[in-house]
Protein backbone atom coordinates (compact mmCIF):
# COMPACT_ATOMS: atom_id res chain seq x y z
CA UNK A 1 0.00 0.00 0.00
CA UNK A 2 1.92 3.03 -1.27
CA UNK A 3 0.77 6.60 -0.95
CA UNK A 4 1.78 10.20 -1.64
CA UNK A 5 -0.03 13.35 -0.51
CA UNK A 6 -1.85 14.11 2.74
CA UNK A 7 -5.39 12.87 2.02
CA UNK A 8 -4.24 9.78 0.04
CA UNK A 9 -1.88 8.91 2.92
CA UNK A 10 -4.62 9.29 5.53
CA UNK A 11 -7.01 7.17 3.48
CA UNK A 12 -4.34 4.52 2.91
CA UNK A 13 -3.67 4.25 6.64
CA UNK A 14 -7.39 4.07 7.36
CA UNK A 15 -7.69 1.29 4.75
CA UNK A 16 -4.82 -0.62 6.37
CA UNK A 17 -6.57 -0.35 9.72
CA UNK A 18 -9.70 -1.89 8.20
CA UNK A 19 -7.64 -4.66 6.54
CA UNK A 20 -5.93 -5.53 9.83
CA UNK A 21 -9.28 -5.77 11.56
CA UNK A 22 -11.16 -7.62 8.83
CA UNK A 23 -8.43 -9.81 7.32
CA UNK A 24 -5.82 -10.25 10.09
CA UNK A 25 -3.88 -12.91 8.19
CA UNK A 26 -3.00 -10.49 5.40
CA UNK A 27 0.51 -9.02 5.49
CA UNK A 28 0.47 -5.37 4.49
CA UNK A 29 3.39 -3.00 3.96
CA UNK A 30 2.81 0.75 3.83
CA UNK A 31 5.18 2.95 1.83
CA UNK A 32 4.77 6.69 2.08
CA UNK A 33 6.50 8.40 -0.85
CA UNK A 34 7.59 11.93 0.03
CA UNK A 35 9.82 12.57 -2.98
CA UNK A 36 8.11 11.37 -6.16
CA UNK A 37 11.37 11.32 -8.10
CA UNK A 38 12.53 8.51 -5.81
CA UNK A 39 10.29 6.35 -8.00
CA UNK A 40 12.33 6.95 -11.16
CA UNK A 41 15.78 5.69 -12.12
CA UNK A 42 18.85 7.35 -10.54
CA UNK A 43 20.09 7.98 -14.09
CA UNK A 44 17.03 10.22 -14.70
CA UNK A 45 16.97 12.15 -11.42
CA UNK A 46 19.30 12.48 -8.43
CA UNK A 47 16.48 11.36 -6.08
CA UNK A 48 15.92 8.13 -8.03
CA UNK A 49 16.24 4.86 -6.12
CA UNK A 50 18.50 2.10 -7.46
CA UNK A 51 16.65 -0.92 -8.84
CA UNK A 52 17.85 -2.98 -5.86
CA UNK A 53 16.49 -0.47 -3.35
CA UNK A 54 13.25 -0.11 -5.26
CA UNK A 55 12.77 -3.88 -5.48
CA UNK A 56 13.39 -4.35 -1.77
CA UNK A 57 10.76 -1.74 -0.91
CA UNK A 58 8.12 -2.47 -3.54
CA UNK A 59 9.00 -6.21 -3.92
CA UNK A 60 9.37 -7.91 -7.28
CA UNK A 61 6.08 -9.81 -7.34
CA UNK A 62 3.49 -8.48 -4.82
CA UNK A 63 0.44 -6.37 -5.71
CA UNK A 64 1.04 -2.66 -5.09
CA UNK A 65 -1.92 -0.31 -4.60
CA UNK A 66 -0.54 3.22 -5.02
CA UNK A 67 -2.78 6.04 -3.74
CA UNK A 68 -1.84 9.38 -5.28
CA UNK A 69 -3.13 12.96 -5.09
CA UNK A 70 -2.52 13.76 -8.77
CA UNK A 71 -3.35 12.04 -12.03
CA UNK A 72 -2.59 8.32 -11.63
CA UNK A 73 -0.66 7.97 -14.87
CA UNK A 74 2.21 10.07 -13.53
CA UNK A 75 3.11 7.22 -11.15
CA UNK A 76 3.05 4.77 -14.07
CA UNK A 77 5.35 7.04 -16.09
CA UNK A 78 7.84 7.22 -13.23
CA UNK A 79 7.82 3.46 -12.58
CA UNK A 80 7.34 2.06 -16.08
CA UNK A 81 10.65 0.15 -16.15
CA UNK A 82 10.72 -1.13 -12.57
CA UNK A 83 10.66 -4.89 -12.00
CA UNK A 84 7.28 -4.91 -10.23
CA UNK A 85 5.57 -2.33 -12.43
CA UNK A 86 3.13 -4.89 -13.92
CA UNK A 87 1.70 -5.32 -10.41
CA UNK A 88 1.26 -1.56 -9.81
CA UNK A 89 -2.33 -0.41 -9.52
CA UNK A 90 -2.50 3.37 -9.16
CA UNK A 91 -5.44 5.36 -7.84
CA UNK A 92 -5.60 9.14 -8.18
CA UNK A 93 -7.57 12.10 -9.39
CA UNK A 94 -9.72 11.28 -12.41
CA UNK A 95 -11.60 14.53 -12.85
CA UNK A 96 -14.43 13.60 -10.50
CA UNK A 97 -15.40 16.56 -8.38
CA UNK A 98 -18.31 18.83 -7.53
CA UNK A 99 -19.74 20.33 -4.37
CA UNK A 100 -18.22 17.57 -2.22
CA UNK A 101 -17.18 16.80 1.31
CA UNK A 102 -13.54 15.66 1.52
CA UNK A 103 -14.47 11.97 1.85
CA UNK A 104 -17.06 12.23 -0.92
CA UNK A 105 -14.42 13.69 -3.25
CA UNK A 106 -12.07 10.84 -2.31
CA UNK A 107 -14.82 8.25 -2.89
CA UNK A 108 -15.71 9.72 -6.29
CA UNK A 109 -12.09 9.26 -7.37
CA UNK A 110 -11.76 5.92 -5.57
CA UNK A 111 -8.85 7.04 -3.40
CA UNK A 112 -10.88 6.54 -0.18
CA UNK A 113 -10.28 3.88 2.49
CA UNK A 114 -13.25 1.72 1.41
CA UNK A 115 -12.35 1.66 -2.29
CA UNK A 116 -8.73 0.83 -1.38
CA UNK A 117 -9.85 -2.17 0.69
CA UNK A 118 -11.89 -3.33 -2.31
CA UNK A 119 -8.83 -2.87 -4.55
CA UNK A 120 -6.78 -5.06 -2.20
CA UNK A 121 -9.44 -7.79 -2.15
CA UNK A 122 -9.65 -7.72 -5.93
CA UNK A 123 -5.88 -7.90 -6.42
CA UNK A 124 -4.57 -10.27 -3.76
CA UNK A 125 -5.08 -13.65 -5.47
CA UNK A 126 -5.91 -15.70 -2.39
CA UNK A 127 -8.57 -13.27 -1.11
CA UNK A 128 -11.15 -13.02 -3.88
CA UNK A 129 -14.35 -14.72 -2.86
CA UNK A 130 -13.08 -15.44 0.66
CA UNK A 131 -13.29 -11.73 1.44
CA UNK A 132 -16.47 -11.07 -0.53
CA UNK A 133 -18.35 -10.17 2.66
CA UNK A 134 -15.78 -7.46 3.47
CA UNK A 135 -16.10 -6.10 -0.04
CA UNK A 136 -19.88 -5.85 0.31
CA UNK A 137 -19.50 -4.01 3.62
CA UNK A 138 -17.13 -1.53 1.96
CA UNK A 139 -19.65 -0.87 -0.81
CA UNK A 140 -22.32 -0.27 1.83
CA UNK A 141 -20.00 2.09 3.72
CA UNK A 142 -19.49 4.15 0.53
CA UNK A 143 -23.26 4.47 0.04
CA UNK A 144 -23.86 5.31 3.72
CA UNK A 145 -21.13 7.96 3.80
CA UNK A 146 -22.36 9.56 0.59
CA UNK A 147 -25.91 9.67 1.93
CA UNK A 148 -24.63 11.25 5.17
CA UNK A 149 -22.79 13.96 3.22
CA UNK A 150 -25.87 14.77 1.15
CA UNK A 151 -28.04 15.08 4.24
CA UNK A 152 -25.67 16.91 6.61
CA UNK A 153 -23.29 18.71 4.26
CA UNK A 154 -20.25 17.28 6.04
CA UNK A 155 -18.56 13.94 6.69
CA UNK A 156 -19.50 11.81 9.68
CA UNK A 157 -17.44 12.63 12.77
CA UNK A 158 -15.79 9.19 12.89
CA UNK A 159 -14.35 9.93 9.43
CA UNK A 160 -13.35 13.55 10.07
CA UNK A 161 -11.77 12.76 13.44
CA UNK A 162 -10.12 9.50 12.34
CA UNK A 163 -6.66 8.92 13.81
CA UNK A 164 -4.19 6.06 13.29
CA UNK A 165 -4.62 3.95 16.41
CA UNK A 166 -2.97 0.59 15.79
CA UNK A 167 0.78 0.17 16.06
CA UNK A 168 2.89 -2.39 14.20
CA UNK A 169 1.52 -5.89 14.74
CA UNK A 170 3.81 -8.90 15.36
CA UNK A 171 4.18 -10.81 12.13
CA UNK A 172 3.58 -7.70 10.03
CA UNK A 173 6.29 -5.49 8.67
CA UNK A 174 3.98 -2.49 8.88
CA UNK A 175 4.92 1.05 9.70
CA UNK A 176 6.13 3.85 7.49
CA UNK A 177 9.27 2.82 5.68
CA UNK A 178 10.11 5.65 3.29
CA UNK B 1 -34.59 57.69 -15.23
CA UNK B 2 -34.98 57.80 -11.44
CA UNK B 3 -37.16 60.92 -11.56
CA UNK B 4 -39.67 58.98 -13.65
CA UNK B 5 -40.26 56.49 -10.86
CA UNK B 6 -43.04 57.06 -8.42
CA UNK B 7 -42.38 56.58 -4.69
CA UNK B 8 -44.59 53.48 -4.87
CA UNK B 9 -42.51 51.99 -7.69
CA UNK B 10 -39.29 52.72 -5.82
CA UNK B 11 -40.67 51.19 -2.64
CA UNK B 12 -41.72 48.01 -4.49
CA UNK B 13 -38.36 47.70 -6.29
CA UNK B 14 -36.59 48.08 -2.97
CA UNK B 15 -38.83 45.54 -1.22
CA UNK B 16 -38.26 43.03 -4.04
CA UNK B 17 -34.51 43.59 -3.86
CA UNK B 18 -34.44 43.15 -0.08
CA UNK B 19 -36.43 39.92 -0.39
CA UNK B 20 -33.92 38.65 -2.98
CA UNK B 21 -31.05 39.59 -0.69
CA UNK B 22 -32.66 37.73 2.22
CA UNK B 23 -32.89 34.62 0.03
CA UNK B 24 -29.26 35.08 -1.07
CA UNK B 25 -27.98 35.24 2.50
CA UNK B 26 -30.18 32.27 3.35
CA UNK B 27 -28.74 30.25 0.46
CA UNK B 28 -25.19 30.90 1.61
CA UNK B 29 -25.74 30.27 5.32
CA UNK B 30 -28.95 28.41 6.24
CA UNK B 31 -29.66 24.68 6.16
CA UNK B 32 -32.73 25.05 8.40
CA UNK B 33 -35.01 27.69 9.94
CA UNK B 34 -35.46 29.50 6.57
CA UNK B 35 -37.86 32.18 7.83
CA UNK B 36 -35.93 32.72 11.09
CA UNK B 37 -39.18 31.80 12.82
CA UNK B 38 -37.15 30.72 15.84
CA UNK B 39 -33.93 32.18 17.29
CA UNK B 40 -30.93 31.27 15.15
CA UNK B 41 -28.85 28.36 16.46
CA UNK B 42 -25.54 27.01 15.18
CA UNK B 43 -27.16 23.83 13.83
CA UNK B 44 -29.19 26.00 11.42
CA UNK B 45 -25.94 27.13 9.74
CA UNK B 46 -24.36 25.15 6.90
CA UNK B 47 -21.08 23.46 7.69
CA UNK B 48 -19.51 24.57 4.43
CA UNK B 49 -20.13 28.12 3.17
CA UNK B 50 -19.50 28.34 -0.57
CA UNK B 51 -21.50 31.19 -2.10
CA UNK B 52 -20.01 34.67 -2.57
CA UNK B 53 -22.08 37.36 -0.87
CA UNK B 54 -20.04 40.08 -2.62
CA UNK B 55 -21.39 39.03 -6.03
CA UNK B 56 -25.03 38.55 -5.02
CA UNK B 57 -26.90 41.78 -4.07
CA UNK B 58 -25.47 43.65 -7.07
CA UNK B 59 -26.81 41.01 -9.44
CA UNK B 60 -30.22 40.99 -7.77
CA UNK B 61 -30.21 44.81 -8.05
CA UNK B 62 -29.46 44.65 -11.78
CA UNK B 63 -32.15 41.95 -12.17
CA UNK B 64 -34.73 44.06 -10.33
CA UNK B 65 -34.17 47.03 -12.62
CA UNK B 66 -34.00 44.86 -15.75
CA UNK B 67 -37.40 43.47 -14.76
CA UNK B 68 -38.71 47.02 -14.47
CA UNK B 69 -37.44 47.84 -17.98
CA UNK B 70 -38.94 44.64 -19.39
CA UNK B 71 -42.35 45.50 -17.92
CA UNK B 72 -42.15 49.14 -18.95
CA UNK B 73 -41.07 48.51 -22.57
CA UNK B 74 -42.18 44.91 -23.17
CA UNK B 75 -38.60 43.85 -23.93
CA UNK B 76 -37.26 40.45 -24.93
CA UNK B 77 -34.26 40.19 -22.59
CA UNK B 78 -32.01 37.48 -21.14
CA UNK B 79 -29.64 37.85 -18.18
CA UNK B 80 -26.19 36.24 -18.16
CA UNK B 81 -24.30 36.02 -14.89
CA UNK B 82 -20.52 36.40 -14.97
CA UNK B 83 -19.30 36.94 -11.38
CA UNK B 84 -18.01 33.85 -9.61
CA UNK B 85 -20.08 32.07 -6.97
CA UNK B 86 -22.72 34.80 -7.26
CA UNK B 87 -25.59 32.46 -8.16
CA UNK B 88 -27.59 33.44 -5.03
CA UNK B 89 -28.14 36.82 -6.72
CA UNK B 90 -29.67 35.02 -9.72
CA UNK B 91 -31.39 32.05 -8.10
CA UNK B 92 -33.24 34.30 -5.65
CA UNK B 93 -34.99 36.25 -8.46
CA UNK B 94 -35.96 33.02 -10.24
CA UNK B 95 -37.53 31.80 -6.98
CA UNK B 96 -39.25 35.13 -6.34
CA UNK B 97 -40.84 35.22 -9.80
CA UNK B 98 -42.13 31.66 -9.42
CA UNK B 99 -40.17 30.04 -12.25
CA UNK B 100 -38.01 28.00 -9.87
CA UNK B 101 -41.03 26.41 -8.17
CA UNK B 102 -42.64 25.83 -11.56
CA UNK B 103 -39.71 23.63 -12.65
CA UNK B 104 -38.93 22.18 -9.19
CA UNK B 105 -42.35 21.78 -7.51
CA UNK B 106 -40.79 20.61 -4.22
CA UNK B 107 -39.05 24.03 -3.93
CA UNK B 108 -42.46 25.60 -3.46
CA UNK B 109 -43.10 29.16 -2.33
CA UNK B 110 -43.80 28.27 1.29
CA UNK B 111 -41.68 27.60 4.38
CA UNK B 112 -40.99 23.93 3.52
CA UNK B 113 -40.08 24.62 -0.11
CA UNK B 114 -38.03 27.66 0.83
CA UNK B 115 -36.13 25.57 3.38
CA UNK B 116 -35.20 23.04 0.67
CA UNK B 117 -34.40 25.84 -1.77
CA UNK B 118 -31.94 27.45 0.66
CA UNK B 119 -30.39 24.18 1.84
CA UNK B 120 -29.71 22.78 -1.65
CA UNK B 121 -27.49 25.71 -2.64
CA UNK B 122 -23.82 24.70 -2.85
CA UNK B 123 -24.59 21.59 -0.81
CA UNK B 124 -23.08 18.12 -1.39
CA UNK B 125 -25.21 16.20 -3.88
CA UNK B 126 -27.19 19.28 -4.88
CA UNK B 127 -26.70 22.44 -6.98
CA UNK B 128 -23.49 24.44 -7.38
CA UNK B 129 -22.63 28.05 -6.57
CA UNK B 130 -22.79 29.24 -10.18
CA UNK B 131 -25.73 29.29 -12.61
CA UNK B 132 -25.31 25.56 -13.26
CA UNK B 133 -27.46 23.84 -15.91
CA UNK B 134 -30.10 23.12 -13.24
CA UNK B 135 -30.83 26.88 -13.07
CA UNK B 136 -34.04 27.69 -14.96
CA UNK B 137 -33.23 29.31 -18.29
CA UNK B 138 -29.44 29.20 -17.81
CA UNK B 139 -27.33 29.18 -20.98
CA UNK B 140 -24.18 30.41 -19.22
CA UNK B 141 -22.89 28.94 -15.98
CA UNK B 142 -20.66 31.85 -15.00
CA UNK B 143 -17.87 31.59 -12.50
CA UNK B 144 -15.50 29.85 -14.88
CA UNK B 145 -14.66 33.47 -15.62
CA UNK B 146 -14.15 35.20 -18.90
CA UNK B 147 -16.88 34.10 -21.28
CA UNK B 148 -19.94 36.11 -20.33
CA UNK B 149 -19.70 38.71 -23.11
CA UNK B 150 -18.91 36.04 -25.73
CA UNK B 151 -21.94 34.00 -24.69
CA UNK B 152 -24.12 37.11 -24.60
CA UNK B 153 -23.01 37.89 -28.14
CA UNK B 154 -23.72 34.34 -29.26
CA UNK B 155 -27.22 34.57 -27.78
CA UNK B 156 -28.15 37.60 -29.88
CA UNK B 157 -26.67 36.53 -33.23
CA UNK B 158 -29.55 36.23 -35.75
CA UNK B 159 -31.90 37.10 -32.92
CA UNK B 160 -32.63 40.78 -33.64
CA UNK B 161 -35.28 41.31 -30.97
CA UNK B 162 -33.21 39.93 -28.08
CA UNK B 163 -31.22 42.00 -25.59
CA UNK B 164 -28.59 40.04 -23.66
CA UNK B 165 -27.80 41.73 -20.37
CA UNK B 166 -24.31 40.50 -19.44
CA UNK B 167 -23.15 41.06 -15.88
CA UNK B 168 -19.34 41.09 -15.98
CA UNK B 169 -17.45 40.26 -12.79
CA UNK B 170 -14.52 42.54 -12.01
CA UNK B 171 -12.26 39.54 -11.35
CA UNK B 172 -13.45 37.99 -14.58
CA UNK B 173 -12.73 41.30 -16.32
CA UNK B 174 -9.02 40.68 -15.64
CA UNK B 175 -8.96 37.59 -17.84
CA UNK B 176 -7.70 37.68 -21.40
CA UNK B 177 -10.91 36.30 -22.97
CA UNK B 178 -13.08 38.91 -21.25
CA UNK B 179 -10.71 41.81 -21.92
CA UNK B 180 -10.74 40.85 -25.59
CA UNK B 181 -14.50 40.42 -25.74
CA UNK B 182 -15.12 44.14 -25.11
CA UNK B 183 -14.61 44.31 -28.89
CA UNK B 184 -17.70 42.15 -29.33
CA UNK B 185 -19.79 45.01 -30.74
CA UNK B 186 -17.67 44.90 -33.91
CA UNK B 187 -19.23 41.54 -34.72
CA UNK B 188 -22.85 42.54 -34.14
CA UNK B 189 -24.96 43.72 -37.04
CA UNK B 190 -27.84 45.95 -35.86
CA UNK B 191 -29.90 44.79 -38.87
CA UNK B 192 -29.79 41.09 -38.16
CA UNK B 193 -28.58 40.69 -34.57
CA UNK B 194 -29.82 41.70 -31.17
CA UNK B 195 -28.01 43.86 -28.62
CA UNK B 196 -25.58 43.11 -25.80
CA UNK B 197 -25.82 45.29 -22.71
CA UNK B 198 -22.75 44.77 -20.53
CA UNK B 199 -22.87 45.79 -16.87
CA UNK B 200 -19.56 45.78 -15.02
CA UNK B 201 -20.04 44.52 -11.45
CA UNK B 202 -17.43 46.28 -9.32
CA UNK B 203 -17.02 44.26 -6.15
CA UNK B 204 -14.37 45.57 -3.79
CA UNK B 205 -13.36 42.27 -2.10
CA UNK B 206 -12.60 39.44 -4.52
CA UNK B 207 -13.42 35.88 -3.54
CA UNK B 208 -10.26 34.68 -5.26
CA UNK B 209 -7.83 37.15 -3.71
CA UNK B 210 -8.45 35.89 -0.15
CA UNK B 211 -9.33 39.43 0.88
CA UNK B 212 -5.95 40.70 -0.27
CA UNK B 213 -7.24 43.53 -2.38
CA UNK B 214 -9.59 44.81 -5.03
CA UNK B 215 -9.75 43.80 -8.66
CA UNK B 216 -7.96 46.02 -11.16
CA UNK B 217 -11.22 47.45 -12.53
CA UNK B 218 -12.36 48.40 -9.03
CA UNK B 219 -9.02 49.93 -8.12
CA UNK B 220 -8.70 51.86 -11.38
CA UNK B 221 -8.73 55.65 -11.06
CA UNK B 222 -12.12 57.28 -11.72
CA UNK B 223 -11.02 58.61 -15.10
CA UNK B 224 -10.28 55.07 -16.33
CA UNK B 225 -13.54 53.75 -14.93
CA UNK B 226 -15.39 56.36 -16.96
CA UNK B 227 -14.12 54.58 -20.08
CA UNK B 228 -16.48 51.74 -19.33
Structural description of this entry:
The complex is a heterodimer of chains A (178) and B (228). Chain A is α/β, with parallel strands linked by helices. Chain A has a single domain, classed as Rossmann fold (3-Layer(aba) Sandwich), CATH 3.40.50. Chain A is 42% helix and 8% strand. A four-stranded parallel sheet of chain A has the order 2-1-3-4, sandwiched between helices. In chain A, strand 3, helix 3 and strand 4 form a beta-alpha-beta unit. Chain A is globular, with a radius of gyration of 16 Å. The C terminus of chain A is likely disordered. The mean pLDDT of chain B is 89. In chain B, helix 2 crosses helix 3. Chain B contains nine helices and three strands; from the N terminus they run ααβααααβαβαα. In chain B, strands 1-2-3 form a three-stranded parallel sheet, with helices on both faces. The two termini of chain B are 20 Å apart. With 228 residues, chain B is mainly α. The chains are: A alpha/beta (178), B mainly alpha (228). At the A-B interface, helix 6 of A face loops of B.
Amino acid sequence: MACAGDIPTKETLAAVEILRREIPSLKVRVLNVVKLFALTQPSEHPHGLSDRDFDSLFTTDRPVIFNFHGYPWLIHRLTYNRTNHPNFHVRGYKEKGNINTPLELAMSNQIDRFSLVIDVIDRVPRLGSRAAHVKERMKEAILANRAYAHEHGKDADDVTNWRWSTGPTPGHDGGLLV
Amino acid sequence: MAEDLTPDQLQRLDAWWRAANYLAVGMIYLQDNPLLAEPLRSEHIKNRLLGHWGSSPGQAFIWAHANRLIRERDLDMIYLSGPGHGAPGVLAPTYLDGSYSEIYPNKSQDAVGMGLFLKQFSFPGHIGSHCTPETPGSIHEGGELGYVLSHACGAVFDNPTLIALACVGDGEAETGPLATSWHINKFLNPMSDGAVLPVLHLTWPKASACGAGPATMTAAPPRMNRMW
